[in-house]
Amino acid sequence: MTISKNKMIELEKRTIDEYEIDSLILMENAGMGIYREINQYNSYTIICGKGNNGGDGLVIARHLILNGKLVEVFVLGDKMTKEFAKNLEILEKLTEINYIEDENDFDGLVESMEVNEVTLDAIFGIGLNRPLNDFYKKLINLINAHGNYIIAVDIPSGMDADTGDEYGACLGANITYAISDIKDGQLLNSKVGELKKIYIGIVRYLDE
Q1: Which domains does the chain have, with CATH numbers?
Q2: What percentage of residues in the chain have a pLDDT greater than 70?
Q3: ∠ CA(147), CA(153), CA(119), 5° rounding?
Q4: Residue 29: enclosing H or E segment and its boundaries?
Q5: 208, pLDDT greater than 80
Q6: Measured distance CA(145)–CA(168) in Å, rounded
Q7: Residue pair 56/28 in contact by the 8 Å Cβ criterion
Q8: DSSP H or E run through 59
Q9: Mean pLDDT computed over 99-114
Q10: Residues annotated in a binding site for (6S)-NADPHX
Q11: How far apart are CA 105 and CA 26, in angstroms?
Q12: pTM for the complete prediction?
């Protein structure tokens, strides 16, 4: 069974508002769940936007670092969510964060991806609903060209969660870990690669 983007947002909001399960707990569950699936590798490039998809990426990075893995974290984007900010504050105490401000910063990212076994995409989540600008299109194309084994958090960046359509460019993942549920559009675009669900504790009723 798959789920629409709006239904997923509704279920998450209900879990937080009505059942008072904090959004940071859900983020921790998502990150820990993916960490448990991918910790067999030794080196990782983790690329995070500043929304909650990026926050999941920061949680994954933290657990990998705490378990002795080589992890390079790259952060980009504008306004950060409070959940992202909290996890960034924690991670800054554990490792150096690389900030991508413009295309001049791409060289360091490319070097990292070519050296490390895994590239983790935590740039955009299911909330993306607009065409990508040239900066993000170039970034995604670079990841596709230079990532050795590409893992997408929830959904490949650049893909519409409902239709599978691409917003000008789309990450081509080897595997996507869909958080809580597989989204409708993920069955309509092969760039998700292998598809697995990650349980995070969303409250749902029997008919949902």
Answers
A1: 5-198 (3.40.50.10260)
A2: 99
A3: 20
A4: helix 23-38
A5: no
A6: 16
A7: no
A8: helix 52-66
A9: 98
A10: 52-56, 125-131, 136, 154
A11: 32
A12: 0.97
Name beta bridge partners: 97.
Answer: 73
Q: Which two tokens stand for residue 58?
A: 């920061």
Q: Which residues make up each annotated binding site for K(+)?
A: 53, 121, 157
Question: What is the SS3 assignment for 196?
Answer: strand
Give the whole-angstrom CA distance, residue 170 versus residue 189: 10
- H helices then E strands: how many in the chain? 6, 9
- Known binding residues: 52-56, 121, 125-131, 136, 154, 157
The pLDDT of residue 206:
65
Mean pLDDT of the chain: 98
Question: Residue 105 in contact with residue 137, Cβ under 8 Å?
Answer: no
In sequence order, what DSSP letters do the residues of 118-172 get, joined into one string?
EEEEES--TT--S---HHHHHHHHHHHHH-SSEEEESS-TTB-TTT--BSS----
